[in-house]
Amino acid sequence: MSRVKRREDVFYSLFREYGEKIVSTGEVYKRIFSAEYPTTRTMIPSMKDYENVCDDQAKKIFMELSSSFITPFDREDISVLTKRMDDVVDYMEAAASRMNLFAVTEMRPEAVRLAEITVQAIGELAKIMDRLPNFKKDPSVMELCLGVDVIEDEGDAVYKMALADLFREDVPTLEIMKWSRVYDRMELALNACEHACDIVQGVVMKNA
Question: How far apart (Å, rounded) are the C-alpha atoms in residues 80 and 82?
Fold first, then answer.
């Protein structure tokens, strides 16, 4: 029994560490998409380094999954949850890199808000990973997941407003194209947080 428990604990520890690493990545992301931009533009290349660190963490989970006969919950759910968490980081890095790729020189307030909301969702996701070992008994796991849904709804409203403002204001066509692509990646990063929580909700419900 103790051996089974130890094997399960490995996955919980890896997910907890993954959540912490994504939080660290999110803090850099928020700094880049801040009112300090373009000063923070020099931080953009570091996002790739954070992405690599998170990729390594995902690989650890997959390696553990491939060598383990016993898992704390369904193998497919572990795999998909890992991929969705990886998506969060990939899309944040993609949004930030486009600021350099498209030579964006000024920050827009909606982008600042989207980054803040995403980091808020990431913080909740990290809490979920921290409490995941007790998901069968701890109702806060489901409550946190539902909270991320609310955060994502707020972000979706900001995203739509951001696009609307691009077309309402006297913004050059090239700038509209640039920001539309940046916003799309920012929205996908936030959506990935919700999708990761959807997997956890499914796990909770399967084991209720």
Answer: 5
**CATH tag, 2-206:** 1.20.58.220
Task: Please give the Cα distance from 189 to 157 (Å, whole number).
Answer: 15
In which residue are the tokens 């609307």 written? 164
Residue 169 tokens read as 């204001």
The model's pLDDT over 121-176, given as tens digits with 9 standing for 90+, comes to: 999 999 999 999 999 999 999 999 999 999 999 999 999 999 999 999 888 999 99
Where do the H-state alpha helices sit in the chain?
2-32, 44-67, 75-101, 109-131, 140-168, 173-206
Q: For the packed helices 140-168 and 109-131, what is the interaxial angle rounded to 10 degrees? A: 170
Q: pTM for the complete prediction?
A: 0.94
User: Residue 73, SS3?
Assistant: coil
pLDDT tens digit string along 8-33?
689 999 999 999 999 999 999 999 99
**Token pair 């204001």: residue:** 169
Structure-block tokens of residue 19: 């959540």
| Domain layout of the chain by residue ranges | 2-206
